[in-house]
User: Fold these one by one.
Assistant:
Number 1:
Amino acid sequence: MCRSVVVVILAFASACASTTFIERTHVAPERDEAALMQDAKDGLLDDTGFDRAAMIVGGPSDPKAIDRALGLLRTKLAPVLAMVRGVDSSRRAAELHRLLRSDLGEGAVLRREVSAATPLFDTVATGAYDAISATMVYAIAAGQLGIAAPLIVDGAEVDAISLLAAAYSKMAVAAAEKHAHALAHAMADRSDALADERTKEALRERRALQLTDLASTAIDRGELAHAEAMIASGGEAAQRESTRASLASLEHYRLAQLSLKDPSGAALAFLRLAIDRHSKSYIENAKAVAFNHLNTFAQAGECDALQTAEIEWEKRVFDPEHTELLASCYSVRARKLFDSKDFGKMIKEMRTATRSVPKDRFAKQNLLVALSSQVDVLLKENRCDAARPLLEEGKRLDPKDAFISDALQYCTER
C-alpha cells in the first residue's frame, strides 16, 4: 500500500535596478558658430544676420558652403516673393505662408515634410523640411518682404534667436538617439546659450521628456548604456517628477540584469539606494533578489547548498529569514526520492527536514509518507522486525493514521 507525497514549491520573481550617468563631454563650436553665439549675447544678430545664423545652425563649417546655400535660397525664394508683392499688403503674410507650402515644382524650397530634425542647410539642398526649418524659411522670406509675422514653435511665439535655440534643441535629441551623446550635449548647450529664460525652460522640459521616452524604448530593447546616456543628455530636467518613472525603470532594469550575474551585488546596490533615497521599495527589492537566489536552490532540491547560501547572505547583506524556502526545498527532495523509490534516504532527509523546519506540517506529512512507503516494502518481504521501529515512529507522528495502526496490528499478530 502506498500514499502520495506532499510537495509544496514556492516561486517568487522580481525585477529590479541603478543608473550610472556617463561623464559629460563637449564638442567645441566651429568658428562661425562661436561668432554667432557671441553676436547673440545682446539679443540681436547685428553682425551675423538671421539668414546666415539660421544657415549656420546644423550646417557645414565651411563659410563658402554657407554663402552658396544662402544664394540658392534667395534664388528659390525670388518667384515666391514676387508673387507675394503682387497682393495687398494686408494679405501678404497669409499669402506667403500659402505659397511656401504650395507645390511649386522643383524650384520650391519646401517640398517634403519630415519629422526628423532638419537643418535649414539641408532643407535648401534637398527640399526636405521639419517644422523649425520651415519656420526659418518663412522668417527669412518675411524679413525680405518687410512683414512682421509671429514665429511659432510648439504652439508658443518665440523671437528669432529663440527659434535658433529650438533648432539646436531638436538636434540635441536627434544626436542622442543616434548615440552621438557628446554632440547631443553640445547642441543642448548651444540651445541654452541662445534662448531667453522662458523659452530655455520650455525647451529643456520638452527635450527631457523626449529623451526619457526614447530611453524607455531603449530599455525595452535592452540597450541599457544607450538609455543611461539619453537620460544624462536630458540634464537636470530629466530628473524631475515628470520623468522620474523612466529613471526608476532604468534603475530596476539595470539591477535586474545584475542580479542574474551577481545577486549579492545587486542586493547591496538596492540597499545603498534605499539609504540614499529613503525608500522602503528598494529594501523590498533587495530582499526579493535574495529570495530569488535562494529559491533557485529550493526549486532544484539542493537543500545543503540553500543553507550554505543563506549563511553567506547573512554575512554579506542581511538575514533573509526564508524558512519557507527550506521547507519547499525538502518537499522537492521528497518528491524526487519518492519517485525514485529511495524510501530509506527519503526517511533520513525528512527527519532532517522536521528538525530544520519544525513548524512545517508538510515535512512531517512527507516523513510519514516515507515511513509508510518503506514499511509497505518490508511487509511484502515479511520483515516485521525491520518494519516495527518505523511503525512506532509513524505512530508518534500521527497516532490516528489508519495505515500505521493496521500495519502495527498485523505485525503484533505475527
Note: The two ends are 19 Å apart (CA to CA).
Number 2:
Amino acid sequence: MGPLPGMAGPRPGAMPLPGMGLPGRGAPGMGAPSGAAPLPGMGGPRPGVVPPFTQPAAPEPPPEPGPDRSRDPFATRKVDPSVASIPVAPVEEATRRDSVYPAYSAARLKKLEPKQLAMYVGVAVLLLVVGGIAGRIVTGRRSQNIAVRDAMIVVYEVKKAAKALADLQPMLASAVQKAASKEYDPQHLAYMNENVRGNPLRPVIFSERNFKSYDNTIVEGVTDYFTSWGRLYRMVLEHRNKTENDALSLADKALRDKARYGAIFGRNEADNNKLVAKIMLVGGMKSGKDGMSYTMQSGAGMYGDSYKLFNPPEGKADPEFSKAPGDYVIELGADDSKGILASASRTQFQEYEARLVAMNDLVKEMTDLQNGVIGKLDAIASRGGAAFLAGGIRVDREFEDYVAMDKAAAAGGGKAAPAGKAE
C-alpha cells in the first residue's frame, strides 16, 4: 500500500526521527546510517571543529614535586591535625610574659605559707652573713700574706746592705787605729774606690712594699737606715776626694803635726797693678832639678797648685821673681804659724783623721739600727703566710721569685724587677 494522501514517504537521504528507525536502516535511537543526509536545519559540523564528545581526553598534569629531604628531613612527616591546631605564642610575647611573671613573683609569694617565706628569708640572710664572713677572712689573710711577704723582702734588702756595711767597718776601724798613731793608711781608700758605689738600698723599697700594717718604729727604722746609707756614701765620696788632694801632705810626716803656710803673689789690676800676697796652706813639698816646689791649698782637702819656692841666696836678688811673682811662694816662719795662724785650720792629717772617726761612728750607729729593723721584721716574717683563702698571695713563691730576679739582675748588671708590688 502506498502512502496515504498528503503524507509523503521519507525523502531520499532523510534521517528518521529517534525511535523511528526502520529495520535494516539502523538500530532504534541511533543516528542515520552512514551516507545519510542531515535533517533540514540541523547542519553537520562546521569545517575544522571537532565535537566535544569526539575530542581526545586531556593529559593529566604532572604531580607536584615532593619536599627536599636534604633541607627539611621532617617535611614528609604527617602532622596530627589536633597538634597542628594548637596556637603557639610568639617568642617576643613569651619572653615578655616570663619577665612580667617570674617564678617567684609577688603574687606567688603571697600564696606562700609564713613558714616557707620565713625559711626563704632565713636562707638568704644566712648566705649574706656567710659571704660577709668569708670576705673578711679572705681580706684579712690577704693582708697578712702581703705583710709577711714584704717583711721578708725588706729583710732581704737590708741584709744585703748590712753585708756591705760589715765589709766596710773593719777597714775603717783599722784606718782609724793607724791614724791615732799618726800613720797614714792608703788601703782603706783603695777598698772604698772598689766597693763603695752608692746607696745599696734602692728607693723603690718604699714604693713597692706595703708598710701600712707595720709599726711606726719599723717604718722610721727603715727610713733612718736608708738615709744613713745616703749620708755615709756622701761622707765616703768627700773623704776619698779630700784624701787624694792631700796625698802629699799625708805621706809627709813633717806636715802631720802642724800646719805650714806660705804666701803666693799676684798683681792687683784694680789698684795700680800693686803686688799683693795671699796666705795659703802648704799641701806638700817636692824637690826637683829647678829646686823646691810647694803645693799650695786654700784649705785641707782642697785641690792645690804647684809654686816655686822663692829662696834666693843671701845677698843675691832673683830677677825672675819681679818678672813673674805669681809663680813663686814664700814660706812663712814657724813663729808666724804659732801666732796669728795657730788656730786658722787643722792640718791635712788632722782633717783626715777626723773624717775617718766620723765615718766609723756612723757605721756603728747604722749597725745597731739595722739589727733592730731586721729583728722586728723577722718577727713578722716568722708568722708565715696563709696557704688558703689568701686572695692569690703566695708568700714563699713570690719571695723566691723576687730573690731569683734580683740575683739575675745583679749578674747581668741591671736592676731587679721585683714581684709582688705593694697593694
Note: The longest strand covers residues 274-288.
